[in-house]
Amino acid sequence: MSFISAQIVDQVADWLFHLEDEREIMSLIDQLATEQPLILAYLMAMGEGDFDQDEREILLFFGAGIWKMMSHSPSPLPKVSEETLDQVETTNMAMLEYLAIESEEGFFEFAQQLQSNYAQPAILGFVIESVMEDEAIQDENKGMMMIFLKVVIDCLQG
Predict the structure, then answer these.
(1) Can you tell me the distance from the alpha carbon of 138 to that of 122, in angstroms, rounded to the nearest whole number?
(2) Residue 127 and residue 61: Cα distance in Å, rounded?
(3) Which site among 22, 38, 39, 52 is 20 to 30 Å from 45 CA-CA?
(4) How far apart are CA 32 and CA 98, in angstroms?
(5) What's the rounded Cα separation, in Å, for the pair 30 and 32?
(6) How many H helices and E strands in the chain?
(7) Do 148 and 39 form a contact (C-beta atoms < 8 A)?
(8) What is the rounded average pLDDT of the residues 112-129?
(9) At residue 79, what are phi and psi to the nearest 5 degrees?
(10) Using 50, 70 and 90 to split pLDDT, how confident is the model at 93?
(11) Are 70 and 156 in contact (CB under 8 A)?
(12) Model-wide pTM > 0.85
């Protein structure tokens, strides 16, 4: 998978945040369902017991946005398998357990360090900034949502 530039991330994010028509959003979700059905299923299942309806919709929206950003790669995205999803999720859940006991300051330091060493820093930066700034996401769910979205990036990264 090729590196996705900050310029592409910004362009796609701008496009995403200017979607006003419900049909446009549903079209994006339908495209995701066709091309990456396991990612869609993962996004719909995660946070079901912990997130409220708005947070679940935000998770799905940001996850579809990540897929759209990564679709701009000159090389085709891998079709995510259950095995890949399980491996990536297991690795990231250990990170979530660590973040659950971390202070807010430690959380931000960890996020900055992770982003600086990450294969797709611009996309991860989009995730961190978008989740942290979204007031509809409860503070106690922000870390969990970031990890769920990082799983999507890691799976699509291949």
Answers:
(1) 24
(2) 11
(3) 22
(4) 30
(5) 5
(6) 8, 0
(7) no
(8) 88
(9) -75, 115
(10) confident
(11) yes
(12) yes
